[in-house]
TrEMBL record:
Ranges of biased composition (kind: Low complexity): 12-28
Protein name: Quercetin 2,3-dioxygenase
Stretch list, region Disordered: 1-41
InterPro entries, sorted: Pirin, Pirin_C_dom, Pirin_N_dom, RmlC-like_jellyroll, RmlC_Cupin_sf
Domain annotation Pirin N-terminal: ranges: 44-147
UniProt-listed Enzyme Commission number(s): 1.13.11.24
Keyword Oxidoreductase: yes
Keyword Acyltransferase: yes
Annotated source species: Nonomuraea coxensis DSM 45129
Similarity comment: Belongs to the pirin family.
Key words of the record: Acyltransferase, Oxidoreductase, Transferase
Record-linked Gene3D superfamilies: Jelly Rolls (2.60.120.10)
């Protein structure tokens, strides 16, 4: 799991929260993501399955894509499809993925890169492995997160952000036992590169075996921890968590995670995606690729898509903005 690595001894440290002012958040629930298939048939884990929307707000949906080792000819993506009313965040940990949308956004992302697409008023897009990966096969692992847009921004013009892995803010825990990659939002005064309509924080944490992570967390945000690899515990009550599980935290001002002293050989560290955001607290009507506030808006989105008002499939080839080609 390369993503972006660094020596934690040389990085800025995140101060440990003050226990007198930052109450540790208890774990409300731990759920196991069911497996399924997306697009043309690539395997996913549905990270938020079974979680009430009120606890996820402002997040809507998240898939862990892979981790899968494709044989030659096996890599798959998605065909052209529409979106309206939210943002898609695609974070690639291993492998390569290409994106193109009808608003002119697109590029190639690989280890540690993120594509942040604001669908807003609506567009068409496609995601797929590059042809060379289809031919050769190889490892593929990533996450796609859907972030809701508040009513005031649901019809904002589409926007695309190409975030290179090296742009993430790299930090270390207070004791140096955890590498923190801040992709969006703010962690202890250190901002990530992602620009968001709804205030959120998105962090990929790598805990060394036996390490404890105590993080300050915005008390006005919700808090979710999804385990990408390894196993350990979450919260002051040390609830067991393992790969493919989501911990939902209750109220408080800090998060606690502990990595088990011994990890699987193939997964030497506890890898966790930490998410938090300011709840929007508006009605959510989610139907397929559309996330709106009312059923009437969903019907309008479907009508606009059928009428071609969400864009047309461009004839141009994918622009390539991979490493060294920004």
């Amino acid at each position: 799991m390369p993503a972006v690595t660094a020596d934690t001894l040389t990085l800025p440290r995140v101060a440990a929260p003050d226990p007198a002012t930052a109450t540790p958040r208890p774990v409300r629930s731990v759920t196991t993501a069911p497996s399924g298939y997306e697009g043309e048939g690539f395997p996913v884990r549905r990270a938020f399955a079974g979680i009430p929307q009120s606890l996820l707000d402002p997040f809507i949906h998240m898939d862990q894509m892979g981790e899968v080792e494709y044989a030659p000819g096996e890599p798959k993506g998605t065909p052209w499809h529409p979106h309206r009313g939210f943002e898609t965040v695609t974070y690639i940990i291993d492998g390569v993925f290409e994106h193109q949308d009808s608003a002119g956004g697109g590029g190639t992302i690989t280890d540690g890169d993120t594509q942040w697409m604001t669908a807003g008023s609506g567009l068409l897009h496609i995601e797929k492995p590059p042809e060379h990966l289809v031919v050769s096969g190889g490892l593929f692992h990533g996450v796609q997160l859907w972030v809701n847009l508040p009513r005031a921004h649901k019809f904002h013009a589409p926007r695309y952000q190409d975030i290179r892995g090296r742009q993430s803010a790299l930090l270390a825990s207070a004791d140096g036992g955890t590498l923190l990659r801040v992709i969006a939002g703010d962690l202890d005064g250190h901002p990530g590169p992602g620009v968001t309509f709804t205030p959120i924080t998105m962090v990929h944490a790598t805990l060394s075996p036996g390490a404890r992570l105590d993080l300050p967390w915005n008390p006005g945000f919700n808090a979710l921890a999804y385990v990408l690899a390894g196993h350990g515990t979450a919260g002051p009550g040390r609830r067991p968590v393992a790969k493919g599980q989501l911990a939902v935290f209750g109220a408080g001002g800090s998060l606690t995670l502990d990595a088990a002293p011994t990890q699987p050989h193939a997964e030497p560290n506890l890898e966790v995606l930490l998410l938090g955001g300011q709840p929007i607290r508006e009605p959510v009507v989610h139907y397929g690729p559309f996330v709106m506030n009312t059923r009437a808006e969903i019907h309008q989105a479907m009508e606009d898509y059928r009428a071609g008002r969400l864009g047309v499939v461009p004839a141009a080839r994918l622009p390539h903005t991979g490493p060294g080609k920004e």
